[in-house]
Amino acid sequence: MPLVARWGRLCAMPASDIASHDSGRLRDLLKVQPGSTVDLTSYDTRATPGFPGKGKKDAEQLREAMAPELSDLQERLYAGGRYPQDPKRVLVVLQGMDTSGKGGTVTHVFGMMNAAGLQLTSFKAPTKEEREHGYLWRITNALPRPGMIGIFDRSQYEDVLVVRVENLVEPAVWGARYDEINAWEADVAASGTTIIKCFLHISPEEQKERLAARLADPKKYWKYNPGDVDVRAKWAQYQAAYEAALSRCSTELAPWFVIPADRKWYRNWAVATLLHEHLLAIDPQWPAASFDVATEKARVAAS
Ligand code: AMP
Ligand code: MG
Q1: CB burial string 139-173: b at 16+ within 10 A, e below
Q2: Contacts by 177-183, CB closer than 8 A, 24 or more apart
Q3: Cα 214 to ligand 2 centroid, rounded to whole Å
Q4: Disulfide: which of 130, 146, 152, 300 matches 81 by Cβ 3.0-4.6 Å?
Q5: d(Cα 42, Cα 201) in Å, to the nearest integer?
Q6: What predicted TM-score, i.e. pTM, was given to this entire model?
Q7: Which atom of ligand 1 is nearest to the CA of 103?
């Protein structure tokens, strides 16, 4: 069943059913089924699938209500990554067209969490040193350590997106990368990493408004890049490149989630909820003491 139809059905559910939906639901709702072919035009970028409230106010309240539990889960994950080391960690990949809200998601979702447990990397055009290595070299170097939540603002997928559209390498080279990325992600998952790949899906109309808003406010000039308009002119080519990446690289170990992102409040709620659902599934436990507690209590008392 196409996703739009599934969303429609869920949104038509009575409020009581939505409130009681099991915690795995948003994951299931937004996930790109491995092996399926994605048609991005079939998605409504203003939709709010799985959202149990009415609008922005509810979204912010729901996100705030989630914060204490997110913090607790994050602290458990972090503690587990210390001694004795549990390899579990999380990697959130954020991709989307310019202005889709990658930076806003970092601020609003990860801003609620403890910075000590976060590892944020924003990938730009590769530097001279990075270009001397394979494209996955800098990505591998940025992977989260045990106990950490890694956030990629852009990622290995740029190497099948901008690189493909701008012909930065031969088609045979980028064409081989989908399988390479799947194999690399399977290794990353096997090392204890829960991978959550989020495509923030905006419409071209929404992007135009956001670009105009950046030019209308001197406090937003820093976010504006004249090159964004050139990228925008290739909208269809980028959407096709995204469709290929979403279709070929959504796997059980590293699924893609398509997040309708024209409404910022929904985007923030959805990414926070996905993170929450995944952390609950990881169920990180406080590590046992690596020392004898009674002995140490006696030593502290006697000191
Ligand atoms: P921003 O995220 O707005 O700071 O822009 C970063 C820029 O770096 C975007 O134009 C990306 O397309 C570009 N970029 C990121 N990764 C790559 C890559 N592997 N190859 C070429 N350009 C890249
Ligand atoms: Mg930019």
Answers
A1: beebbbebbbbbbbbbbbbbbbbbbbbeeeeeeee
A2: 177/135, 178/244, 178/245, 178/248, 178/249, 180/136, 181/136, 181/156, 181/157, 181/249, 182/248, 182/249, 182/251, 182/254
A3: 11
A4: 146
A5: 11
A6: 0.92
A7: 2
